[in-house]
Amino acid sequence: MRGRAKQIAARRPVYAQELARGLETFFTPMRTRCPWCGSRHLSVRLRTRDHLQGKPGTFVLGECLDCGHVFQNPRLSEDGLRFYYRDCYEGLGEATMARLGSSPLALRLYRSRARAVAPSIRPSLWLDVGTGHGHFCAEAGRIHPGTVFHGLDLGEGVELALSNGRVAQAHRGSFPELAAQLAGQYDVVSMFHYLEHTTAPRAELRAAHAALRPGGHLVIEVPDPQSSAARLLGKWWGPWLQPQHLHLIPLGNLCKALTREGFTVVSTDRREPHVPTDLTSAAANVLSAVLPSGDVPWLMRRPGRLSRVGRALGLAAAVPVLLVLFGLDTLLAPLARRTSLSNTYRVVARRD
Asked: In this structure, are residues 248 and 318 in contact, taking their beta carbons and an 8 Å threshold?
């Protein structure tokens, strides 16, 4: 812990300097039109905060009343994206994300995603976009033993995936910017919980079309903004994941966009991709909102002893509750998968 405390202390002046410029510098101007269909008929879906890291700011999700697209409005700027992603998947948050990425639940989800293309496709080369540390590729390689996996991501995690042997090749950068050099190479391109993080989802679909060989397949999983769980749990619903999720796309909208970009939709699935954590993640978000903050570098100073003790006691009391809720999520998963409570959908599309 002493090493972590030193890391936090070293980062604190950097965060303080950025925050001194004001949070407004982290946002682009508010949109008056839907970024998906161009409609002016917009409403506010919800206002929330950063439950995952607890960084400062209020985030608004708008909704188009014509096409149903849900989007962050105002959206984070490039500076804002760097600020809110920092120390989440890498840096201070790297060890936590690595543990989550190799958890039993994550491994089950990876296997399910890998099998989405198993029945009729025998890929030789597969590109996983937004691969992070490459845990999916490592697990999918056991299901597709003859397949070579490449990873692509903006962060240094993809380079760690290469050094750890989880991917055979690492591409670091923006997918649309790298698409030309990757053109026509891949049998499969996957985007698992990636598209909602991007500033221009249609550009990502065009990049996938370019990277795929004719007849190749694109596999996408994203949170479903039409899920009944999103309505029931409101701002506490985990898949809103503000401020990271910039676009939450209804299934029909995504299928139409894929068709326009030169794909044929092969299958859609709202059952199998469901992630059974709705109650658990909602409770964790509430806990994040009510507990005193831990020692983090975006606070001006380390929390006092009373605050630290209060947080430790609150976390200790919450652990049994979270375990019970995770058990309920698991028990309710078969029901959720068969109803509108499912929180995720999957699309498999073929490049024409």
From this structure: no
* Burial of 144: CB neighbours in 10 Å, binned 0-12, 13-18, 19+: buried
59-64 and 70-72 as β-strands: parallel, antiparallel, unpaired? antiparallel
Write out the two tokens for 123.
Answer: 């890929």
* Count of C-beta atoms within a 10 Å radius of residue 49: 17
Q: Is the dihedral of CA 56, 344, 347, 129 positive or negative?
A: positive
State which fold the 93-275+344-351 domain adopts.
Rossmann fold (3.40.50)
Q: DSSP string covering 227-253, please?
A: -HHHHHHGGG-GGG-TTT--EE--HHH
Tell me the pLDDT of the chain (352 aa) as tens digits: 578 889 999 999 999 999 999 999 999 999 999 999 999 999 999 999 999 999 999 999 999 999 999 999 999 999 999 999 999 998 999 888 888 888 999 999 999 999 998 666 789 999 999 999 999 999 999 999 999 999 999 999 999 999 999 999 999 999 999 999 999 999 999 999 999 999 999 999 999 999 999 999 999 999 999 999 999 999 999 999 999 999 999 999 999 999 999 999 999 999 999 999 999 999 999 999 999 999 999 999 999 999 999 999 999 999 999 999 999 999 999 999 999 999 999 999 999 9
How far is the CA of 255 from the CAs of 37, 90, 110, 247, 344, in angstroms? 14, 33, 23, 15, 15
Peptide bond into 223 cis (omega under 30): no
CB 262 within 8 A of CB 85: no
Q: Tally the residues of the chain.
A: 352
CB 26 within 8 A of CB 57: yes
